């Protein structure tokens, strides 16, 4: 059986996830969450804004629908960080009733710091979800939920997905805590949800499942490696997976990528030319509310002469002929699916990079000015922090 990765250990990296999940669930208890932000504070909240950049924004999208139900009766928004820091109009009346959660494991970016600082100056209740409580973003927050990223026993490119995975699990647990507090779920249901998170990770991260995905993605990469670009599509929680997959393809193989939902794709991306040189990836979780629309969209993809990969927990015969279907185990709840259904996308991107001879991020050293933060051309950390109001 093939293995994957620059050191032939991406599969083994994902095999570490069940144990990583167990440790994460054991650390992020109800008491830890209450210590980070007291229930008395949460009970006064009427509006929630969650934000972040990159992987953290993908995590905000992945948990938006579920947490909207958990923060019962409240306005719940997953917004881009630049919108929170520069454009969102905060309510002037009772600002403390607005909870702004900024997700950033490093906490070092200018924009997350700016968003947190602006929310604090507006009088909002602020919570940093971060692995670095001493970061400049965290220091602007009134409350901090610290989450540590455990290092894998051996290096694997799969470790590059732990930031996203950890942010999704943490935000789901925060949502469950709020759901218990506001009567959206019972204590028994909370435990069932936590058990399902572990069970789903356990089901996907086996030698058999990962081995099959590994072989399938390696074979597909042989024909997809020289394409002009890649098209990522999903609706609802599946859009979060598509978003994260797009990001990983940029990092892994520096490719030209598109991203859209399963409805808007038919209005816009459908009209792309050079279709035979584009790889189109659709994420289709069968319990997702937009699943039937995604099915139709996949049919449109195939009938317009595209090369299509479908990542799904549904039976392969549900999809139109002549598309490649990568079938994963099902999660009981659709909001848990983003924890694992990105894996085929990551494996495919990593194989394409290997076959192109492309280094991660184009090379992670001083020789690459695009990767360098300090003194380079990327201004994530050096961008000027500005208060617009």
Reconstruct the topology from this structure:
Layout: H1 10-15, H2 17-27, H3 30-36, H4 39-42, E1 47-52, H5 55-70, E2 75-80, H6 81-87, E3 98-103, H7 110-121, E4 125-130, H8 136-139, E5 143-146, H9 162-181, H10 187-204, H11 207-224, E6 229-233, H12 237-253, E7 256-260, H13 264-267, E8 278-284, H14 291-303, E9 307-312, E10 324-327, H15 343-356
Parallel strand pairs: 1-2, 1-3, 3-4, 4-5, 6-7, 6-8, 8-9, 9-10
Helix pairs in contact: 2-10, 5-9, 5-12, 6-7, 9-10, 11-15, 12-15
Q: Your description of this structure?
A:
The structure is a single chain. This protein is α/β, with parallel strands linked by helices. It contains 15 helices and 10 strands. It has a 5-stranded parallel β-sheet, sandwiched between helices. Strands 7-6-8-9-10 form a 5-stranded parallel β-sheet, with helices on both faces. Helix 5 (55-70) runs parallel beside helix 9 (162-181) and helix 5 (55-70) packs antiparallel against helix 12 (237-253). The protein starts with 9 loop residues before the first helix and ends in a 33-residue tail after the last helix. Mean pLDDT is 93; it is low at 1-8.
State the end-to-end CA separation. Answer: 58 Å
Q: Would you report the number of β strands?
A: 10
Arithmetic mean pLDDT: 93
Percent helix, as a range, is 40-55%
Tell me the number of helical segments per DSSP (H or I, 4 or more residues long): 15
């Amino acid at each position: 059986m093939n293995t994957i990765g620059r050191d032939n250990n991406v599969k083994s990296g994902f095999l570490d996830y069940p144990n990583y999940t167990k440790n994460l669930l054991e650390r992020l208890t109800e008491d830890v969450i209450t210590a980070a932000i007291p229930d008395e504070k949460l009970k006064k909240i009427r509006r929630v804004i969650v934000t972040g950049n990159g992987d953290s924004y993908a995590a905000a999208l992945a948990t938006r629908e579920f947490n909207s139900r958990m923060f019962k009766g409240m306005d719940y928004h997953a917004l881009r960080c630049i919108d929170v820091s520069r454009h969102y109009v905060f309510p002037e009346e009772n600002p403390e009733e607005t909870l702004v959660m900024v997700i950033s494991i490093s906490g070092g970016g200018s924009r997350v710091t700016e968003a947190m600082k602006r929310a604090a100056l507006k009088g909002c209740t602020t919570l940093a979800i971060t692995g670095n409580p001493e970061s400049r973003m965290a220091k602007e927050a009134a409350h901090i939920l610290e989450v540590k990223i455990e290092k894998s026993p051996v290096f694997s490119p799969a470790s590059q997905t732990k930031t996203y995975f950890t942010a999704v699990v943490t935000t789901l647990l925060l949502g469950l805590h709020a759901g218990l507090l506001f009567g959206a779920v019972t204590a028994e249901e909370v435990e069932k949800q936590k058990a399902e998170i572990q069970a789903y990770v356990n089901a996907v991260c086996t030698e058999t499942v990962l081995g099959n995905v590994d072989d399938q993605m390696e074979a597909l990469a042989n024909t997809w490696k020289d394409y002009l670009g890649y098209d990522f599509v999903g609706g609802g929680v599946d859009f979060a997976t598509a978003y994260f997959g797009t990001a990983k393809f940029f990092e892994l193989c520096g490719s030209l990528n598109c991203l859209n939902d399963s409805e808007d794709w038919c209005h816009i991306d459908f009209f792309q030319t050079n279709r035979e040189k584009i790889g189109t990836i659709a994420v289709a979780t069968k319990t997702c509310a937009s699943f039937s629309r995604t099915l139709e969209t996949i049919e449109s993809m195939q009938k317009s002469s595209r090369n299509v990969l479908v990542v799904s927990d549904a039976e392969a015969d549900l999809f139109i002929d002549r598309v490649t279907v990568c079938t994963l185990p099902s999660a009981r709840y659709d909001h848990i699916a983003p924890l694992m259904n990105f894996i085929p996308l990551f494996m495919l991107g990593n194989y394409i990079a290997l076959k192109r001879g492309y280094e991660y991020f184009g090379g992670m050293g001083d020789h690459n000015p695009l990767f360098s933060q300090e003194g380079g051309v990327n201004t994530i950390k050096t961008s000027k922090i500005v208060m617009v109001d």
